[in-house]
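Supplementary Note 2. Why include the ligand at all?

Several targets in our set were suspected to adopt different conformations when bound, so apo predictions alone were not considered sufficient. For every target with a known small-molecule partner we therefore ran a joint prediction. The input for copper (II) ion is given below.
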Amino acid sequence: MGRRYHRRMLLHRIFATFAFAVACTMVAVSPASARECQPQVRDGWVRLGPAGMPMMAGFGRIENSCAKPMTITGASSPAFESAQLHETRLVDGVNRMRHLPELRIAPDGVAVLKPGGMHLMLMQPHAPLKAGSRVVVSFQLAGGGELLGEFEVRRPDAL
Ligand SMILES: [Cu+2]
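The joint prediction is reproduced in token form.
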């Protein structure tokens, strides 16, 4: 009887350990609910260019409501072959774009992506985009994790 009891206790302990491990994993992968702050993408929109244009620009506000800085290290979108953060700068009287490998946003800071400045460069759409439709962009964050934003497709003359 003693032996049987011990066996049952052992099984019980293994099960308890397993259940604890599963619970921990669930906490680790649960979304932002466990955190006290969540960066946000607001007013996102994509400027619709002439049909067949291989790239278009996205704009909006990326707000860091957290008490620590956040750094965006890349972007991607299921609607495009590739996506990058770009910056437009006036060099010798000419507007030039360059790839921004990192964008750091201070605590309670905002990064504004707007025409003529920082923007999201969306390259090679998988399908033609229609005004009024929405695309999702995922921003990769330093230290892991991602920030999802929704961007509305707009015609330039509708602004
Ligand atoms: Cu660009």
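The mean pLDDT is 84. Helices lie at 2-29. Comparable summaries for the other entries are listed in the accompanying table.
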